[in-house]
Amino acid sequence: MVTKTLSILFVASEVEGLIKSGGLADVAKALPKSLKKLGHQVNIVMPAYQSISGRDAADILLETTLTHWPHTPYQVRALEVDGISVFGIECAEYFDRSEMYAENNQAYSDNGERFAFFSAACLDMLPKLNVQPDIIHANDWHTGLVPYLLKKRYENDAFFSHIRSVLSVHNAVFKGIFHYDEIACLAEFKANYVPEAAVSHSHISMLKAGVLCADKINAVSPTYAKELLTELGSHGMAVDFQSRESDLFGILNGCDYSEWSPEVDSFIPKQFKANRISMVRGKKACKSALQEEVNLPQKEVAMYGMVCRLTNQKGIHYLLPILEQFLKNDVQVVIVGTGDPVLANQLAEIAAINSDKFAFVEAYSNKLAHWVEAASDFFLMPSEFEPCGLNQIYSMAYGTLPIVREVGGLKDSVTDYDSDIDNATGFSFKNPEPVELLLVLMRSLLLYSQNLNEIKRVQLHAMKQNFSWDEAADKYVEMYLS
Ligand code: GLC
């Protein structure tokens, strides 16, 4: 029941359905959809990157220049995703490039200016379009200057005076640190000292600006909210998060089951339901199709999948030292991802020597991500840190048992088999060490080899979990109202 209808402007650098590089995009689509379902009015605003298909055919809602110096020209396109209207900020100078943030693993040298402009334009367009939200919900460093500008630039502007801001922190390792010169396109930073954002005499952090200026802050899981209060868990920003502790929430992300459910998934070779016969048949067919797709032998064998950005955040450095030893067992491992070229080379080398057991696909493929979730028996997420993690939640929906490190949202969403057999939905380990990962892999394989019936029971139990966005959206509304 809606007590008060809120108008929410969701600001993000990527949105699933239009363009995606990671979990942020999934949230940027699913959360607005659920908020709308609750009766709230939601718009999204994002950069109108050149590579968004259909961009150039979309209506132009506004052609203007920033009212403030340096009066950069831009236009606003009417994009749309799943019935939610998306304001696309188009500016050829900044967003007509082949990628969103980086090329050849190298960040664009003007990212500071690009996202400073984007943050300024998000607010600049509002009076011009006569859009006056109650809440502006920013996400991660790219939009950290939105709460800052709202507080500083528009402090005495009546149009903005009732608007409150929220910042969601999806990954605090990315702080958006730039030299003042790199963001001199905002007059506020020409002064060369902005206490709300300063991290040294010469540099600022856009994330810090958001954390200090937003009215409320959300971490994407309860455990991550606690971790952000520590030096290690916040990657050196504990003081900032501690200063905002009373405004810090931790709301676990949900799963968009219209995208990630084996019953309706249009990517996978065979759909299946949460009952034993359907699950066993469906997963078998998907496994066989994936084996063919990635050139692994056709056989009924324990399959371990992993889909991720290739970075140490995802625990690849725990896996690499023990992978070959694990591959001595009767198993198959499939890893799909792109990222750090050094990690990619190491994985490719191991795959070349173990081609009958290990397939490494260096690609970013939504289709393959769905296939791996459906086909595998186990899903690897041994992350060093993980603000929420979504793939472990998707895995459970496909009866694929996540193997996770007990950190961030992984800890909040997966129950380890050996700690709680009745409620188990996967396997977990604690210490950030390769040998610990090997041990948990062996625990899972032992159960698979000696009691496949029990594995199927746990898989079915995992399928029946419900991480609905509806529940998460209720908590967001509570935060907005506060
Ligand atoms: C980032 C985090 C991931 C989280 C996602 C969505 O990608 O690394 O843990 O699930 O954002 O919030």
From TrEMBL:
By its UniProt entry, which InterPro entries does this protein fall under?
A: Glyco_trans_1, GS/SS, Starch_synth_cat_dom
Pfam family, any one: Glycos_transf_1
The UniProt GO MF terms for this protein read: alpha-1,4-glucan glucosyltransferase (ADP-glucose donor) activity; alpha-1,4-glucan glucosyltransferase (UDP-glucose donor) activity
Indicate which residues the UniProt annotation says bind ADP-alpha-D-glucose.
Answer: 20
Keyword flag Transferase = yes
Q: Which UniProt keywords apply?
A: Glycogen biosynthesis, Glycosyltransferase, Transferase
Q: Which GO terms describe its cellular component?
A: cytosol
GO process annotations (BP): glycogen biosynthetic process
| Domain Glycosyl transferase family residues, every copy | 294-437
Q: What is its EC number?
A: 2.4.1.21
Q: Which reaction does it catalyse?
A: [(1->4)-alpha-D-glucosyl](n) + ADP-alpha-D-glucose = [(1->4)-alpha-D-glucosyl](n+1) + ADP + H(+)
Describe which pathway this protein belongs to, using the record's wording.
Glycan biosynthesis; glycogen biosynthesis
Domain spans labelled Starch synthase catalytic: 8-238
Regarding protein family, the annotation reads: Belongs to the glycosyltransferase 1 family. Bacterial/plant glycogen synthase subfamily.
Q: State what this protein does.
A: Synthesizes alpha-1,4-glucan chains using ADP-glucose.
Task: Write the protein's name.
Answer: Glycogen synthase
